From TrEMBL:
Residue span(s) of domain Acyl-CoA dehydrogenase/oxidase N-terminal: 27-102
Name of one Pfam family that matches: Acyl-CoA_dh_2
Annotated organism of origin: Beijerinckia indica subsp. indica (strain ATCC 9039 / DSM 1715 / NCIMB 8712)
Limits of the Acyl-CoA oxidase/dehydrogenase middle domain: 141-231
One GO MF term: oxidoreductase activity, acting on the CH-CH group of donors
Name of protein: Acyl-CoA dehydrogenase type 2 domain
Keyword entries, A-Z: Flavoprotein, Oxidoreductase
Origin organism lineage: Bacteria, Pseudomonadati, Pseudomonadota, Alphaproteobacteria, Hyphomicrobiales
Superkingdom: Bacteria
Domain Acyl-CoA dehydrogenase C-terminal: 269-383
Keyword presence, Transmembrane: no
Transmembrane portions of the chain: none
Amino acid sequence: MTHSSPDLASPLSAISDLDPILASLTAEFSGRAAEHDRQASFAFENIARLRELGLLGLTVPKIFGGGVPSAFGGGEVTLSLAARIIRAIGQGDPSTALVLVMQYVHHIHLARDDRWPASLRERVQRDAVENGALINSLRVEPELGTPARGGLPNTIARRTPEGWRLSGHKLYSTGIPALTWLSVWGRTDDDNPSVGPFLVHRDTPGVKIIESWDHLGMRASGSHEVIFEDVLIPLDHAVDLRPPAAWARGFDPDQMAWMTVLVASLYDGVAQGARDWFAEFANERVPANLGAPLASLSRFQEAAGVIDALLFSNAIILQKIAEATDRGDYPSVRDCNFTKYIVTKNAIEAVEHALELSGNPGLTRSNPLERHYRDVLCSRIHTPQNDVILTSAGRDAFASRALREVA
């Protein structure tokens, strides 16, 4: 089937065929990914492009709370469609895709979360659709590390007559150069503190960004440090305070499924980019002693087959989990964890196969494969990490066997 040239100036909602749009975005973003990676600079142009296409508000519901049609309704897309978008953008520039993952997951959760004040929720949703405003969580701290492994945050909010006064220090604040809304993980200063997100507008006085992000991979994600110095926010911006034990359950089922599938799709997209480069390299490289393309050699053909088998496995798993979620049949925590583990492991292995056979060209900075490898390795540090996934699954396996024996 042939496609007419896509009108990239049109809003996404007016475009009937998404495939040429996504292919164009992949090519456009990949064309400047190397420069952003080299300079560790944030790709503002990519965010502007996503805003122009209406992609930043896609997971905002068309129907607002109480079944009332929303005047600012977004795309309200399925997880299956969102995963396609993330995979294509991840193939072009995974740092940009990671910012979009966090945007999509936050708005899916926000649409279902009745703990937020309705007016505040609507304000953030409207801002996403009308202005392309971005939101992300700021959770990691120098002393705490990731909250997923337990512990109270050192970001502290003091209740005052005029509002909350928030002070703290956050690391790895992905997308901070372009964020409008910061969901800051903190605790109250009570003797028995409550914990939860405090919503802070980026322009609030006392918010200070330290541009310290200098990482092996995902170098264009702008994941800098943020300091909060006695930042004043309204009392209703403490949107979901709970006792610490109440957070032990982790994400809600829908939020966990969305985070799992979209993060995994991002890194699957990186592996697809590596696969495409390797195929082109092997077809075009003609060593003088061979007199034929490397693609004619059986060991290159076998490697390409292994890579495609790994990516095929990823596609089947991601499709299964996404379609189940879209039906409301949310996967278990174990299934989400296994999805993240298997898909990212396959993605890393696929890139490593390409790297091994391409030799020195694959590790040359002028070729994208070296960057793909650094980027795909970052999949290991996303929560949940492999040790948590496997230990939890093993513990459950032994527990279930013991229960059967008792029965």
